[in-house]
Amino acid sequence: MFFRTWILGIKSLLLHPMRSALTVLGIMIGVFSVIALLAIGEGVSIKAQKDIEALGAENIIVRSIEPPNDSIEFSFSAREFGITRAEMNQMKAIPTIAQVIPVRELRLQFQYTGNALAEPRLGRLVGCTPEYQGINRLEVDRGHFLTHPEKQATVCVISAELAKYFFPYEDPLGKEIFVPAKKNRFSIVGVLKEKTATGAVGGSLSGQDFANDVYIPIETMRRLMGDLEEKRSAGSFERKKFELSQVTCKVKDVKDVPKTAKIIESTLRRMSTDREDYGIIVPFELLEQARSTRIMIQLIFGLVAAVSLVVGGIGIMNIMLATVTERTREIGVRRALGACRRDITRQFLIETIVLSVVGGCIGMALGVAFPISAEGSKVLADWLAPEYYERIPTYFREVVPVLVPWSFPLAFGISVVVGVVFGLYPAMRAAQMDPIEALRHE
Amino acid sequence: MGKAVEIRDLTKHYVLKSETVKALRGVSFDVPQGDYVAIMGPSGSGKSTLLNLLGCLDRPTSGSYMLGDENVAQMTDDDLSAVRASRIGFVFQSYNLIPQLTVVENIEVPLYYMGKLDSRAKERCCMLASMVGLGDRLDHRPTQLSGGQQQRVAIARSIVNDPEFILADEATGNLDSVTTEEILQLFERLNGEGRTIIMVTHEDEVAEHAKRVIRLRDGHIVSDERNTDRVIAKSSVEKVAPEDAESAVDRSESPAT
Question: Is A8 touching B (CB cutoff 8 A)?
Answer without folding.
Answer: yes
